[in-house]
Amino acid sequence: MRIFPLPPLQSLVAFDAAARHGSFTKAAEELHVTQGAVSRQVSQLEKFLGRKLFVREHRTLRLTVVGQRYAEQINSVLTDCAGHTAEAMKKQSNFILTIACASGTANLWLAPRIANFRAMNPDISIRILVRESVVRLTADEFDVGIYYLRDDLPPGLSLQKIIDEKVFAFCSPDYLGMARLNPADLINKMLLVADEQQRQWMSWHDWFALCGVKVAKLKNTLISNQYPILVQMAVNGQGILLGWEKMIDPLVDDGQLVKASNASASHGGGYYLVCPQGHRENPVVNIFSRWVESQILSTLTGAS
Prior knowledge:
Elements: H1 9-21, H2 24-31, H3 35-49, E1 54-57, E2 60-63, H4 65-92, E3 95-101, H5 103-110, H6 114-120, E4 124-130, E5 144-149, E6 157-164, E7 167-171, E8 191-194, H7 204-210, E9 221-224, H8 227-235, E10 240-244, H9 249-253, E11 258-259, E12 270-276, H10 283-303
Parallel strand pairs: 3-4, 3-5, 8-9, 8-10
Antiparallel strand pairs: 1-2, 5-12, 6-12, 7-10, 7-11
Helix pairs in contact: 1-2, 1-3, 1-4, 2-3
């Protein structure tokens, strides 16, 4: 329903200031405009109302009876409007976005980029929640997540694939002297193994099998339940790590890791943006989703 009749807001602001000060000149000083501008705004309001609001006498300005009552009402309306506006601005500046992801994703992909998102969206506060598996999350504890998924997708989630799976073996530049070996030649090297991660993640046995190499038992392994620890060990030249392309790229771009083999493998899975179905219309989630898409696109463009 249209709000009618409604005078120009600026004329109400000028009238309110003039009524409080009893002077066009002092009202102009408050509003940082000229005295003439205030006078014109008040005259425009009087014309709109068809009533005189002020009695203009020599060097004096006083409200009419109608003007006095209208001034009290308009001051109340403008005060309420200012209060509601301040509340809206306060809420906007305190938007909180909870982003869930595994520790590897948080360290390798999100942490190096999140400053860019915050610079573009200073009104959004960020909370990063680390859960190694999306199945360990409840819908009420996160807004959006970035997770590797392959099958048995959890119910009640909205999914958007952002990265296709492509898994390579990585090591420090010095570990193999920049050589790239065939998969079979990696079997006897020190292999860094992620334990207790998402069950769908690719294991070394999976990787070798997908690369056409049969392995009964891995002889040299170092196991950790924290993928970032294994990443740091690979950077330090202590073994070879499986890494998901696009996720591990920052370390490759920095020269801290290189491919140990040209071979790659895929289960057909990938990384997804996930969010509870009740959250997918959240404007803050949509802002983050578009930002993630732009980051992936810039990575692909840079690679090409």
